Amino acid sequence: MILRPFPLAALYRVHSPKWAHLPTSGAGAASQGGRLNRKGVDALYLSLETETALAEYQQTSPLLPPGTIASYQVELSQIVDFSGGYNSNWDPLWEVQL
Asked: Which phi and psi (to 5°) does residue 21 adopt?
């Protein structure tokens, strides 16, 4: 697994009206599961660009449903870097020594 630091940056997300009152909740992703979380596990998906956040939000409808775009200031000590693709031989995250 490739871990790298993530310096302070603005990240984006579009909230449906249902979840706008809980902007840091990952409960919406937990209700369905996602690419990086199992059903029942909260996950907050954020994007580097507003266009990506809008595309993520629109993925279940050909029309853009009502939503609110929000920005977050985020700085993390480490993130998983998938820019080089995914390798199924990586150690699971819970086995990586941070």
From this structure: -80, -10
What are the extents of the domains in the chain?
Answer: 3-81
pTM: 0.72
Do 79 and 1 touch, CB atoms closer than 8 A? no
> Do residues 76 and 6 make contact, with C-beta atoms less than 8 angstroms apart?
yes
Dihedral sign of CA atoms 49, 39, 28, 4 in order = negative
Q: One digit per residue, pLDDT tens: the chain, 98 residues? A: 678 888 999 999 998 888 788 888 888 888 888 777 889 988 888 999 999 999 988 887 788 888 999 999 998 888 877 777 777 776 665 555 54
Around Cβ 19, how many Cβ atoms within 10 Å?
17
